[in-house]
Amino acid sequence: MRILLAEDDPHLGDGLTVGLRQDGYAVDWVKDGVAADLALKTESYDLLVLDLGLPRLTGMEVLGRLRGRGQTLPVLILTARDASGDKIAGLDSGADDYVVKPIDLDELAARVRALARRSAGRATPLLQHGEIELDPAAHRVTLSGVPVELATREFSLLQALMQNAGRAMTRAQLEASLYGWRDEPDSNALEVHIHHLRKKLGANVIKTLRGVGYLISKS
Ligand code: CA
Fold first, then answer.
1. CA of 85 to the centre of ligand 1 (A)
2. What does the alpha-carbon distance between residue 184 and residue 180 come to, in Å, rounded to a whole number?
3. Backbone torsion region of residue 213, taken as left when φ is above 0, otherwise alpha when ψ lies between -120 and 50, otherwise beta
């Protein structure tokens, strides 16, 4: 099991890395939000331990981008003792659990184990909506059993919408699923991808919510 640890405090980061490795986990440790965001986009992790107070991109921004891309890995946030609003905001933004600083290593290890158990059954499930089936692992989409050719960004967009079926996705969330932090999206690129997806999969699959974003309903 592979864990990404995002923590800028060198002593805490070092202690957590050592402690989690002793528990048998593979740990990659990054020290700022941009490095965390990049690692999450390019590597495969089973769990993210995320300090909310990170430089360059805050933990909340990292979390927003992660969930915006439709990535479902469990996230354990680390929050300051006096910031109870952070806990609520973090859980509302898609974190699964939290640990309050100063960190008790035994408590953190127990929460990591619990999240790992809970997520064991949901590794890359097939996504379905009506006659559309998306296989995240094989990077394959079929419509009524017939393979559909999608461009990379069309696939990412569809995956983000299907993983969040029933929830309105904002432009910013969807663009985060398509672009790296260096890329400047064209202002209408999202609409173009949506247009192509509708042509390939059916005009009514993706609904436009004026002033909000886009939605695939729960099938
Ligand atoms: Ca910090």
1. 16
2. 8
3. left
